[in-house]
Protein 1
Amino acid sequence: MLLILCQATLADWSLGRMAAVVSVMIALNFKEDAVDRQTDGSEADRQGADSGGIRFRPDDVLQLECPFTETTVTEVSRFYVSVRWPWLEVDSHAKNIRWNGQRALPTPEAHEWEIFRTEPVEAALKSRDTCRVGIPPTVVHVLAVHHFDPPLVTGMLPRPASYLEVLRQGETHDPESEDQGYALDPAGGEPIRIELLFRPYAFLEPGDEVADQDGRVWRFDAAWDWHPFDEAQPSAPAWPLALLSRNGEPTPEEAAAVTRATAVGSHADELERWTELTLARPATRQQ
């Protein structure tokens, strides 16, 4: 996955080498995937997964945006343009990781996806140019949420306590690709505005048990990851749904909320709305 870790000159790092280092760091510090609470898009502006605001979860559809900020080009190559990173600070207490305060952004020839872009575009820049760097409005969907306890040491401050692993609009997860996702700190130093556009099955929480209109009992793990207790087909519940369990017996208010939310609509409607926004298919790891 593509991250902002670096040692020495960022342009010297290939995507493969960077991904390998970061994957090891995540594996060593990984705690658990997020278990998120229901929220709507109005609550999602610039709130981190661990900051007391929205807790993101897989399949969330987000819009990212970061104000373009002036900076200086430090190095240019065929595949990368390095700029002084205007937001993060050097972590002087990080051992064995030294960040030079720069970040390399790919040119079109690199054929890499990067959410941060420059104005003017990377291909038009040369060393010592002044430019601006930021994120234009960009729609992504969440593949996974990773938490770190203690926060991950990257050579930069602030140290991330979580990463969202996201895919761009139009891209379906390929389980054979290790470098497909883009890792983003939702509560990091960059002033990224994160808007929750859509959360499929926002009225349920992972681990909920429900009964559908046919009397079948299901466990909900993710929007496209349903487990029928009878192990029969079809593999998605028929609405309306009745909440049977949420960490034990649900409250009357919780049960009523699920009943209201599924009085109309269907699993197919949730999938259609998600697909329209992501222009992708559900991850193959799911139903």
Protein 2
Amino acid sequence: MTELLDVLSDFTRRWAQLDDESALTTATALVAMSIGTFLVQNVLESDRQATPTRKLLEALDPIVRSG
């Protein structure tokens, strides 16, 4: 997570000409939005459409339950 924030901070610092603190805040917000998007698409909406994550969980279910 630290490496991801470092990369995104560096990107936002150069792209938006932000100071270090603002760049880190922006990077943290980008990560949070990405995680939120992943959760909505792959967990909350997974019963409406077969997502790659849903397919993986369904494939692993028999293996997990057999143990």
Protein 3
Amino acid sequence: MRKEACLRGLGTGLTRGLSTDYVGTGAASPEGLPGWTIAEATMDGSRIAAIAIRSG
């Protein structure tokens, strides 16, 4: 989910390859793709969403 959000933000989709970038784990991991903030949110207790925001 985190990786999908990031690839969508890059505009490449899955054509970039799933093993190309490491995006970290957890709700607000400081590790991951440089220049990006990637976070997760629980929606109504049963769904999880991810968002990727490019910094700068």
Protein 4
Amino acid sequence: MNPDQDREDPAQALAMQSAWEWVMKAHEQPLSEADHEALARWLEADPRHRTAHAQASRLWLLSGLVPLAHDDDGLPH
């Protein structure tokens, strides 16, 4: 995917925003059965949704592997 694609395609940008919301919600607490069903419907509604969700999930996982640039005191390491 082209890095500028979100700026070129408002629907893709909206899909990415929704994907982030789903990924964050799933990491804050377990999804309910209704949430799982809503997520499944959202993923099936548009191919861009599945792509955006996969990207957001990968970025979420990768962000956990990146060490913090600052300690809790805000000073660089």
